Structures are given as C-alpha cells and as structure tokens.
Amino acid sequence: MKTCPHCGTRWEDDCCFCQRCGAPLPPPPPPYGAAPVPPPRPVYPGAPSSSTYLVFSILATLLGCFFCFPFGLIGIGGIVYASQIEGALGRGDLAGAHTAANRSLIFTVLAAASPLIALLFGLLAGFGSIFGWLFW
C-alpha cells in the first residue's frame, strides 16, 4: 500500500497518482532481499577511455619486455595509471582522470620506445668497439 505524501490517503501499489488530490505517489519499495540498483555513472564529454589506455599500455609492456626485458617493465606504470582512470571518473574527478591518462600515456610511450632506444645504444656501442679495434 502506498500513502499519498500530500493528503495521506492510502492506495494500492499499482497506482501512480492519488485519485483524491492528484499528487504523484512514490514508487513502491523493492521486494525484500532485492539488490539495490546503483545510480548510473555520469557521462563526461571528453573523458579519457580507460580501456583504450589499458590495452595500449599492456601491448607496449609486452613488446618492450620481449625485445628489451628490463626496460620494458616501465610499461607497468602505464598499466597502473590506466587502471586509475575509471576510479577517478567514478568519483567525478575529471581532472584526476586526465592526469592518470597523461601519465599512462607517458609510461606507455617509454615502454614502446625502449626497444628502439636499446637498439640505438647497441648500434652505437657496436660501432664504438669496431672503431676502437681499428685504431688500437
């Protein structure tokens, strides 16, 4: 049974408006034991997508670890920051979500670039040893 908040008249649960005064009736209570429905998360235009950053940071970490093991682990920082984006958006912290996305991007780029940096370092070290042998 619903009670009208305006006039106090009791009505059946299937009524939406009080038939005496016309005031809207509150929705019926959920059945006993039913899980409460969480409110929908607000949508922020221009918010970063955590799934996109997470996928790219995982791929960059795997690529970096495959070609240059110790330096590829830098990508773990990208994974950690990418996982923080969704939590910041859930709290309504849009600036925190952008900060986590930017930091994730930095670590992801470093992890993806680590094999290239190692290759360049190896080439320079190799040329140095070759020229050192020639002039020794």
TrEMBL record:
Record has Lipid metabolism as a keyword: no
Keywords (A to Z) from UniProt: Membrane, Transmembrane, Transmembrane helix
Main location: membrane
Pfam families hit by this protein: CD225 (PF04505)
Any one of the GO CC terms: membrane
InterPro entries: CD225/Dispanin_fam (IPR007593)
Transmembrane segments: 53-83, 104-135
UniProt keyword annotation of Ribosomal protein present: no
Location of the protein in the cell: Membrane
Domain of life: Bacteria
Protein name (Swiss-Prot/TrEMBL): CD225/dispanin family protein
Source organism of this protein record: Bittarella massiliensis (ex Durand et al. 2017)
